[in-house]
Specification:
By secondary structure, the chain is α+β, with helices and mostly antiparallel strands. It is built from twelve helices and 22 strands. Bound molecules: flavin-adenine dinucleotide (FAD) and iron/sulfur cluster.
Length: 571
């Protein structure tokens, strides 16, 4: 966004509350693969002492502050979460963008669970396709096309929406575990394909002239910066071009506190920020873009008094509404170590083979009594020594028996990777608002998260995990321990960092915060960018869709808004 706007001739100032980060200085290969520093001590992430949230499962509980990150991680510093992500690069399926219409037409309105508040996005897959394409070519995405201009292609994902051209680079080479998964899945009648990956399969120079090198499968990818210039990130794809843009200024270690408004509250006049010395400043602006990630975009709107905060009792208000996450689950598979030897240390953040047969509405939900789905696969992300200790359920958690079980299973089990990546649809009792008790270090109320799974997600997770376990058994596993998502949402158990919603897009200001261009209905010179716009979350990782929406919005600002500033859609 900053690059596109400065190329269009605007003076752009980007604020980042964390530090400046560069590949050469911060992630040399001699230093980057430090599991304790990054995976255990979370050195790249936001510290809860800097900023946190309160959490509860439902409105009858008192929310308490999260004092250590568990369920999700928050980026902090130039590059944000895109610096330490895996780079699993999925497009959402076309029906996702018209989800409510699609499911109602196929199954009838009564099939949707009570309290489910899914809605159409206001933008379609076909409208986003050129912007998906642009983002994938920026990142050098490695993959095998499954649908080229409506023609299904061998070896790719047959369920994906039509793409206008192939991926910019071929799929990565696959490790043995993923190859075995694909073989078993194919023999069972599924349609496996390589996961689209932002870990480079070959050298690649993107349209901005920035070059990435091939991935060396170091296995220190998710949670880490890539010292090899091989993982698509802001540092490796766009920052080298952005810093040369004439009108661009970066202010790192500067935290925006609120957006300022004119007297009528209808126009943003700039932002108030605090610098590294704790001094407060005001930056005037003609156009404000909030790109702070889901809960922080929502917090920014709430603390700036923009839009009405959602009230679950009356169902009125929109800011904080339709908050979602992801329903992930897995199964551990153990093979005979005498005959099956994997090498989990050869890994990358997004390498793997997947199936999409049970995602979205790719299968008939009628007899199953739930909606939604997810992709599943064998994604070999790492065999790192601290994290990777595969033992069958029931093994003692320490001592000689535990050590013997780790030794026995390390090279002959499937335990890491994505497993099942289920969707999380929206409900009227899952939301964000402002906590009445707890405050941040600036004295502002913390965001309060109210989030839980519903019967629909439990049924879906049980079904998907069963299907996943069937494939693991067909691979020859001698033991499979299923771990479906059950019980309440747990804030200490990592479940991806894909927080979505809260400032959702739509066709109607009564059920959305931003219009189809991510433009605020209330303050037209404010655009709110990111997964906060998703009305519900699909069974995919979100960032490729965030990238596509960002280019879509950039296009609308440059070609429409700058020519005639004002609302791009009439309420
Ligand atoms: C470990 C991990 C693995 C992941 N893997 C994948 C994956 O494989 N595929 C995928 O699709 N997604 C993945 N994600 C998610 C992905 O990282 C996010 O979707 C993506 O980074 C969101 O981009 P964003 O620009 O909206 O937000 P961010 O990347 O979070 O950037 C927002 C930036 O704004 C800054 N900020 C926030 N508030 C303020 C403020 N008030 N003032 C100034 N600055 C502020 C933050 O410090 C941050 O740097 C992963 C995330 C994590 C943590
Ligand atoms: S696995 Fe590949 S892309 Fe990931 S950090 Fe290592 S070299 Fe970089």
């Amino acid at each position: 966004m900053a690059h596109g706007l400065s190329e269009a001739g605007l003076d752009v100032i980007a604020f980042e509350r964390g530090p400046w980060r560069d590949t050469a200085q911060d992630f040399p290969p001699t230093y980057a693969p430090d599991e304790y520093r990054y995976r255990v001590r979370h050195e790249l992430f936001l510290r809860p002492a800097q900023m946190t949230f309160t959490f509860r499962n439902n409105a009858s509980q008192t929310a308490l502050p999260i004092r250590d990150w568990g369920a999700f991680m928050l980026g902090n510093g130039v590059g944000g979460g895109g610096l330490h992500w895996n780079a699993e690069m999925w497009r959402f399926e076309p029906s996702q963008f018209v989800l409510k219409t699609h499911l109602t037409e196929r199954y009838g309105a009564k099939f949707l669970p009570a309290g489910m508040t899914i809605q159409d996005w206001g933008v379609t897959y076909d409208e986003l396709e050129p912007h998906y394409d642009r983002f994938e070519y920026l990142c050098g995405t490695a993959g095998t096309a499954g649908n080229l201009k409506g023609v299904v292609q061998p070896g790719g994902n047959p369920f994906e929406g039509p793409r206008s051209r192939p991926y910019p680079t071929p799929a990565q080479k696959q490790p043995y575990s993923a190859t075995l998964f694909a073989k078993a899945a194919r023999e069972m009648g599924h349609q496996p394909f390589p996961q689209p990956s932002g870990n480079m399969s070959q050298p690649y120079t993107n349209p901005l002239g920035v070059t990435l090198g091939p991935c060396t499968f170091c296995g220190y990818c998710e949670w880490f910066g890539c010292g090899n210039y091989s993982k698509a990130s802001p540092q490796t794809t766009i920052l080298p071009a952005l810093v040369k843009s004439r009108g661009f200024t970066a202010r790192d270690n500067c935290e925006v506190l609120r957006i300022t408004l004119d007297g009528a509250g209808k126009r943003a006049t700039g932002v108030v920020f605090v610098d590294a010395d704790g001094e407060e400043w005001e930056q005037p602006a003609d156009l404000v873009l909030s790109c702070a990630f889901t809960p922080f975009n929502v917090q920014m709107l709430m603390l700036s008094g923009i839009g009405r905060i959602y009230d679950p009792a009356t169902k009125r208000g929109v800011v904080g509404r339709n908050f979602t996450h992801q329903t992930v689950s897995t199964a551990q598979a153990f093979f005979d170590p005498k005959t099956v030897r994997f090498n989990p240390f050869i890994a990358s953040g997004a390498i793997g083979m997947c199936i999409d047969d049970y995602n979205g509405d790719n299968f008939d939900h009628g007899p199953l009594g739930f909606v939604g789905g997810g992709y599943m696969g064998q994604v070999q992300t790492n065999g790192r020594p601290i994290e990777t200790t595969p033992v069958p359920t029931g093994t003692p958690t320490w001592g000689a028996k535990w050590k013997a079980a780790v030794k026995e299973n390390y090279n002959s089990s499937i335990y890491a990777g994505s497993g099942v990546h289920g969707c999380f649809y929206a409900y009227d009792d899952v939301f964000m608002d402002l906590d009445p008790t707890y405050k941040d270090r600036f004295g502002r109320p913390l965001v309060r998260m109210t989030i839980d799974f519903h019967e629909n997600e439990h049924k879906m997770s049980a079904f998907l995990t069963d299907r996943y376990a069937e494939i693991l058994r067909a691979m020859g596993a001698t033991r499979v321990d299923k771990l479906p998502r059950t019980g309440h949402y747990n804030v200490t158990d990592y479940q991806t960092s894909h927080l979505c919603g809260g400032a959702v897009m739509g066709a109607d200001p009564h059920s959305s915060v931003v219009n189809r261009y991510q433009q605020s209905w209330d303050v037209p010179n404010l655009f709110v960018i990111g997964a906060s716009s998703f009305p519900q979350n699909a069974g995919y990782n979100p960032t490729t869709t965030v990238g596509a929406l960002t280019y879509w919005t950039l296009d609308a600002i440059v070609n429409q808004y700058l020519k005639a500033p004002g609302p791009l859609v009439q309420a």
